[in-house]
Automatic annotation (TrEMBL):
Organism annotation: Ladona fulva (Scarce chaser dragonfly)
GO biological process: canonical Wnt signaling pathway; cell fate commitment; neuron differentiation
Family annotation (InterPro entries): Wnt
Keywords assigned: Developmental protein, Disulfide bond, Extracellular matrix, Secreted, Wnt signaling pathway
Protein name as catalogued: Protein Wnt
Length: 84
């Protein structure tokens, strides 16, 4: 059992923080700022009209994976002397 009790407000801030991390990482992947990821996948079906896909999309899939790992890291036990 945790020594701290959680509140709805803490859960909201935690979820918002995780979403911000996921968004920032997804955007950083698209700009080439991170070496661990690249552009997001292009759509399978092009949208209607004269739209032509170009450029580099945000890598939302990688951003969500990273955000989840970041959010879960706070609750993972860390052994004494273990590096992050």
């Amino acid at each position: 059992m945790s020594r701290f009790s959680s509140t709805r407000e803490q859960a909201f801030v935690y979820a918002l923080s995780s979403a911000a991390v996921a968004f920032s990482v997804a955007r950083a992947c698209a700009t080439g700022s991170l070496f661990a990821c690249s552009c997001g996948a292009t759509p399978r079906e092009p949208p209607d009209g004269n739209f032509k896909w170009g450029g580099c999309g945000d890598n939302v899939k990688y951003g969500l994976q990273f955000g989840k790992a970041w959010a879960d890291a706070a609750s993972a036990p860390v052994a004494v002397g273990e590096k992050f």
